[in-house]
């Protein structure tokens, strides 16, 4: 590939379930994207994602700016050396506006959160995230699919075969599950139960997250769950409107982060702090300790790149943010006991 | 007989001042609520009680462990569950086997406040008690002032941490100043102290956000995950209109020329919420409109999980936000609040406000320029 004369921007979005990376060019078009599972190891998954991206694009591609977002944005920013670290709501709103500038409502359902962004005249004016409950998010569907031993990819297709969805309590994941088992034991066919799950999830979303929000078309549906056709159809049914799923629905956060990096570099031109394509070969180590300075007992996390201390966070008072303070590991209680015993 | 009281943000200083003025020097000033406080409070509280109940109960248990025997607490025939706080806490603490005495102060009624304080003072007469209360409410004006200055200067300071240090000193000065004349002089010296000692970055054009909601959550940084500091760190000037003075500042109440901020905001809220329903429900609604008129950028509305009055205002606020074009972010706080989710929402809200402000400015400029074009055309184009 020939990259001469063009500028490229990288966006990384690390969420609870998936890690997304996207590279865009200066026209904000997606050049390449990667969607993999985080599997509880954000650092490993970033490195893995970077390696896949590197294999696809090659070492020569120059990154002019990098952005990080998602719930692990702080960590991600440290690991890739991002120029800008922003929250996922802003990133999603920007990416959606790039996709269609007349968009008025964005529905985003991810692994452990779901949000709604209300946009009017090209500016986000309101947003909401699920607050006290994670029912109606991707991980709920994931668990149920695993329990029923069907691959999550086929979930929607099977649900669409049903004509009479079973009503399932959608208020709480635990109740939904026991209700689902109950319906299974009564002999309802699998596709009806799956369809019922899709509908209850949508109902829950509209009654919780989207409560009191004015949902006007065009409506965009994105996030990992947008892959599920059953959910898409359920949204269309309940909103009585067409729901539009963008081409890169699963990596919209990463695209948004890349756009943010582009805007940042245009506003304040400088050399990128991006570490480069050899990130997969670096060793990142995190370690934690409990600070015993006060009864808060904060859990402090330290990030090291190739042995050098990059950052430290987690303290409420900000004492450990100063990297010049060295934390000395006190001998563990256990070792003391062993020493004392002989 | 060591006396203690709940930890209440900067109002902790006010309670300390009051007791010292009453001649009670045997005090146990409560520690800042920590993870342990919340755990203790939650363990012994009913599950669905409001969060301030749990935190204050936890604080009481910790103070009792430190040797306190007299517990002071506000309590009245309130409009929400707050009226039941002290009787229930008393029962719980008695069941836990602590030996103590509770002083409930009916703060709605100034005469009742005086009567209770006289009983608890060191043999003072009514005049002396009134004098003590007067010093307290005047000093409370200054703790409010320092809070305001702190939340303003911390957003625009050039060297991080200076404002915190100055504020700490200012609070100590307020507590230690003696004599009414000296105290009144603080009105001038405190702002000067901030002005002189803090270097500010004048190039900034910060957003301004008011924090409204239930008073305990708004005041106690340990419970609201220090939302003021978080917003200040994002470069936003913050102000909290809520104040304890609406109960104890008899000077303001008696003076026909002065009006407490609460009276203003309640009047504005009348068309939306006519009756007082406890908490700061009416104030939250009134303040949203008040700050919009003042030209501020947005509101952050905090309320504890299961708080009844604030749930009422929360369901009215979207309507007001729409009518007055004033963005409001409502956040539920409880002892399990995750700081990460809080931060994400605050950051997103700030981004939203910045983009909104830019757009509003653009619109103003285009409006102006179209007007100019018209005038130019009318002059030259004829």
Report on the structure:
Chain A has three domains: 8-94 and 252-281, 2-Layer Sandwich (Nucleotidyltransferase, domain 5), CATH 3.30.420; 101-245, Nucleotidyltransferase, domain 5; 284-341, no CATH class. The N and C termini of chain A lie far apart (67 Å). With 342 residues, chain A is an alpha/beta fold. In chain A, helix 3 (88-99) crosses helix 9. Chain A is globular and about 65 Å long. In chain A, a hairpin with a 2-residue loop joins strand 12 and strand 13 (308-313). Chain A is built from ten helices and 13 strands. In chain A, the strands form three sheets. Chain A has a five-stranded mixed sheet with strand order 3-2-1-4-5, with helices on both faces. A five-stranded mixed sheet of chain A has the order 8-7-6-9-10. In chain A, strands 11-12-13 form a three-stranded antiparallel sheet, covered by helices on one side. By secondary structure, chain B is α/β, with parallel strands linked by helices. Chain B has three domains: 3-124, 3-Layer(aba) Sandwich (Rossmann fold), CATH 3.40.50; 126-204; 206-382, Rossmann fold (3-Layer(aba) Sandwich), CATH 3.40.50.11900. Chain B contains 16 helices and seven strands. Chain B has a four-stranded parallel sheet, sandwiched between helices. In chain B, strands 1-2-3 form a three-stranded parallel sheet, with helices on both faces. In chain B, helix 2 packs across helix 3 (51-65), helix 5 (110-120) crosses helix 6 (126-156) and helix 6 (126-156) runs parallel beside helix 8 (180-197). Chain B is globular and about 80 Å long. Mean pLDDT of chain B is 88; it is low at 376-382. Chains A and B meet through helix 3 and strand 8 of A and helix 2, helix 15 and helix 16 of B.
């Amino acid at each position: 590939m020939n990259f001469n004369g063009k500028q490229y921007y990288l966006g990384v979005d690390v969420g609870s379930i998936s890690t997304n990376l996207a590279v865009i060019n200066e026209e904000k078009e997606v050049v390449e994207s990667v969607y993999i599972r985080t599997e509880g190891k954000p650092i490993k998954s970033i490195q893995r994602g970077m390696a896949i991206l590197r294999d696809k694009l090659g070492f020569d591609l120059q990154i002019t700016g990098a952005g990080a977002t998602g719930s692990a944005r702080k960590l991600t920013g440290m690991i890739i050396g991002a120029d800008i670290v922003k929250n996922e709501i802003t990133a999603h709103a920007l990416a959606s506006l790039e996709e269609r500038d007349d968009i008025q409502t964005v529905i985003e359902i991810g692994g452990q959160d779901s949000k709604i962004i209300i946009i009017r005249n090209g500016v986000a004016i309101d947003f909401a995230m699920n607050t006290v409950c994670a029912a109606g998010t991707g991980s709920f569907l994931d668990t149920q699919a695993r329990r029923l031993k069907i691959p999550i990819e086929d979930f929607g297709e099977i649900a669409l075969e049903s004509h009479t969805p079973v009503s399932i309590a959608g208020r709480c994941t635990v109740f939904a599950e026991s209700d689902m088992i109950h319906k299974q034991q009564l002999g309802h066919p699998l596709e009806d139960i799956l369809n019922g799950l899709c509908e209850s999830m949508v109902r829950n979303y509209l009654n919780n997250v989207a409560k009191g929000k004015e949902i006007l078309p065009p409506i965009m549906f994105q996030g990992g769950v947008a892959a599920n056709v059953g959910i898409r159809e359920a949204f269309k049914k309940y909103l009585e409107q067409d729901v539009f799923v963008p081409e890169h629905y699963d990596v919209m956060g990463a695209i948004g982060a890349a756009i943010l990096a582009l805007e940042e570099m245009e506003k304040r031109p400088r050399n990128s702090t991006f570490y480069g394509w050899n990130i997969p070969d670096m060793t990142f180590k995190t370690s934690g300790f409990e600070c015993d300075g006060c009864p808060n007992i904060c859990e402090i996390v330290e990030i090291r790149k190739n042995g050098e201390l990059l950052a430290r966070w987690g303290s409420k008072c900000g004492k450990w943010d100063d990297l010049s303070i060295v934390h000395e590991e006190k001998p563990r209680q256990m070792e003391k006991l062993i020493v004392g015993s002989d | 007989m060591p006396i203690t009281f709940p930890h209440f943000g900067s109002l902790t200083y006010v309670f300390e001042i009051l007791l010292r003025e009453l001649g009670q020097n045997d005090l146990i000033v409560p520690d800042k609520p920590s993870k342990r406080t919340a755990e203790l409070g939650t363990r012994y509280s009913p599950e669905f009680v409001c969060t301030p109940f749990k935190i204050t109960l936890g604080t009481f248990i910790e103070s009792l462990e430190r040797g306190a025997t007299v517990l002071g607490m506000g309590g009245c025939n309130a409009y929400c569950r707050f009226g039941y706080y002290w009787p229930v806490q008393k029962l719980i603490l008695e069941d836990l086997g602590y030996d103590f005495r509770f002083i409930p102060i009916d703060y709605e009624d100034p005469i009742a406040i005086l009567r209770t304080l006289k009983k608890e003072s060191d043999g003072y007469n009514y005049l002396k008690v009134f004098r003590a209360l007067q010093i307290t409410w005047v000093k409370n004006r200054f703790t409010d002032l320092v809070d305001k200055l702190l939340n303003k200067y911390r957003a625009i300071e050039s060297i991080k941490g200076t404002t915190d240090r100055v504020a700490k000193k200012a609070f100590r000065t307020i507590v230690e100043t003696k004599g009414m004349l000296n105290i009144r002089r603080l009105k001038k010296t405190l702002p000067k102290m901030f002005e002189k000692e803090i270097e500010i970055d004048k190039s900034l054009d910060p957003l301004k956000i008011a924090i409204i909601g239930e008073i305990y959550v708004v005041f106690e940084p340990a419970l609201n995950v220090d939302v003021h500091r978080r917003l200040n760190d994002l470069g936003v000037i913050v102000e909290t209109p809520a104040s304890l003075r609406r109960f104890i500042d008899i000077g303001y109440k008696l003076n026909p020329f002065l009006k407490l901020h609460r009276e203003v905001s309640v009047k504005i809220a009348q068309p939306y919420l006519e009756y007082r329903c406890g908490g700061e429900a009416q104030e939250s609604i009134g303040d949203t409109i008040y700050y919009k008129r003042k030209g501020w950028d947005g509101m952050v509305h905090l309320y504890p999980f299961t708080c009844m009055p604030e749930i009422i205002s929360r369901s009215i606020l979207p309507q007001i936000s729409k009518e007055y074009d004033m963005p409001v972010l409502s956040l539920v706080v409880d002892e399990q609040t995750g700081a990460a989710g809080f931060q994400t929402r605050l950051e997103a809200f700030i981004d939203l406000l910045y983009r909104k402000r830019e757009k509003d400015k653009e619109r103003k400029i285009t409006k102006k320029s179209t007007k100019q074009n018209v005038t130019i055309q009318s002059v030259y184009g004829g």
